Amino acid sequence: MKTGNNIDIVECVLINLEDSSESKLFEREDSKCHFREGIHFGQYIIQLRLDWTDMRNNEPVLDADIYVKPKSSRSKLRNGSWHHTVKRYNTEIDGCVYLFEFQSLRLRLSIRRKMAIALKSDVRIVEKIVYKITRKNQS
Predict the structure, then answer these.
(1) Quick count: other Cβ atoms within 10 Å of Cβ 94?
(2) Which sign, positive or negative, has the C-alpha torsion 73, 14, 54, 2?
């Protein structure tokens, strides 16, 4: 995913800090978000996504949409306090920790991303030629 300024996000992983489990996030066409597979919690499906268009303190916002099973556009709950996940800087991991809460579910999450930076430059190649001049003795 291109984020602008010649930066591509090559891979993004959501890490559960409680058990160190990792979930590789995926992209959707024409979206500036990375999505996690739905989390099944009782009668609900929780869809987490990193929104790269909503940056706060140079980190994306972790949004959540919650659906009543089966998941459909009509079964989506109205956004509550859980929609924008709380984010705090954590010195132990030297990064942000997202604190997601919904009913009795509590998740402490962090992200790992691989970035690629495209560099563009003009190069001028100059060939160095060295000549050795010798004089003949004219005697």
Answers:
(1) 7
(2) negative
Cα separation, 129 vs 114, in Å, equals 44
Amino acid making up residue 23: S
Phi-psi region of 103 (alpha: psi -120 to 50; beta: other; left: phi over 0): left
Residue-range domain boundaries for the chain: 2-117
- Rounded Cα gap, residues 12 and 78, in angstroms: 27
3-state secondary structure of 75: helix
Cβ-based neighbour number of residue 16 at 10 Å: 13
Q: What contacts 118, CB < 8 A, 6 or more positions away?
A: 6, 7, 8
- How far apart are the C-alpha atoms of 107 and 102, rounded to whole Å? 9
Per-residue pLDDT tens over the stretch 65-107: 999 988 887 888 888 888 888 888 888 888 889 999 999 999 9
Position of tokens 């556009």?
Answer: 73
